[in-house]
Amino acid sequence: MAKTLGIIGFGTVGQGFLEVLINKNKEFQNITGETVRLIGIIGRSKGSIVSENGFDPHDAITCIKRGLSLNQCFPELKRMDVLEFVKNLKPDVLVEAIPTDLENGEPAFSYIRTALELGSRVVTANKGPIALHYEKLKNFGNNLRFEATVMSGTPVIGFIKENLQGSRILEIRGILNGTTNFIIDQMEHGKEYSEALKEAQKRGYAEANPNADVRGLDALAKIVILTKVAMRYPLSINEVKVRGIDTLTRKDVLEAKKQGKKWKLVAKVSNKDGKISASVAPVMIGPEDPLYHVSGTLNGIVIKTDILGEVFLKGPGAGRLETGYAVFLDLIKVLKK
Ligand code: HSE
User: Fold this and answer.
1) What residue's CA is closest to ligand 1, atom 8?
2) Is residue 157 part of a domain?
3) Ligand 1 pocket mutation, candidates 149, 152, 201, criterion most atoms within 8 A of CB
4) Cα–Cα distance measured from residue 161 to residue 144, given in angstroms and rounded to the nearest whole number
5) Bridge partner residues of 39 (DSSP)
6) What are 171-210's pLDDT values in tens digits?
């Protein structure tokens, strides 16, 4: 029987995920041996539709592309709020992709916890609840997946969890925010800060509130998540020193360029004999550093382990289909037998 699927939040990530699922449906079925029935999309501005019998994902995407709300396109379907949907329909898998809240992780945290308690598996793209409440959720084990929270579709969480097992991770240093990396790049090419930020928003890289990007809070949430996964340490966001790129001027950027260097917003955590310390700050680096070569919206991460030394991973850090792919990947993992 088809597995039932609900999507909470139908913005860039929710839609990107559904598009990937549509385009990769054959691969999805081959890998998991499962089919899915989409029984609900609960959005805010895009409307909310619920049908136990399911509806066509393609029609939902087409509707939004025509600039309509889901309720205009499917007037015959029920509307529900998130908790009503989670409690009454208990989907096999809930995909949660509402805008993040980095102060208390709500309301996403309550949605995720309720769904897990009721037996749904949850795939979230939401940084707030994981950075702030991971300790309260980790007992649900692999029924909760959150690959999309860090480095978009570049599978760093899976890489650490599955491919570095048994390693002791000594340090992580990374460019974890695509928007700021893109802005700095654009400034190197002569654009003004505000112009570059506008472009990042237009392309769907920036957060709903771009202050989270430019003040370093998005990178902060990501380094906290990585610390929890890689070092199994319950790092609090208050323990991390944070500075964003909002203090960086075009003059700073051009000066670095003259010296053959670049400014990068670097998030870092190190484990020195059990003492964990983390920071987020703009750092000027030269071409000898692998992070120097991470440009545009790409993200990059250097993971230092006891046996392997440095492992470097580079890939997309933001974007509609890229982040949608991370959610798709997690959907495969939660359903794969
Ligand atoms: N605003 C985020 C970034 C999106 O620019 O990296 C991906 O988390």
Assistant:
1) 318
2) no
3) 152
4) 13
5) none
6) 999 999 999 999 999 999 989 888 999 998 888 888 878 9
Nearest residue (by CA) to ligand 1, atom 4, is 318
Is position 222 annotated as part of the catalytic site? yes
174 and 55 fall within a common domain? no
Find the mean pLDDT for residues 314-320: 93
Q: What is the pTM (predicted TM-score) of this model?
A: 0.96
Cα separation, 197 vs 38, in Å, equals 35
Same domain, 238 and 191: yes
Structurally, the chain folds into a number of domains equal to 2
Distances (CA, A) of 16 to 112, 209, 238: 20, 19, 32
Cα–Cα distance measured from residue 8 to residue 174, given in angstroms and rounded to the nearest whole number: 29
Do 191 and 307 fall into the same domain?
A: yes
Give counts: helices (H), strands (E), the chain: 14, 12
- Strands laid side by side in the 48-50 sheet: 48-50, 36-42, 3-8, 93-96, 121-124, 144-145
User: Does 206 share its domain with 270?
Assistant: yes
Which candidate in 222, 264, 268, 314 is catalytic? 222
**Rounded distance from Cα 176 to ligand 1 centre (Å):** 8
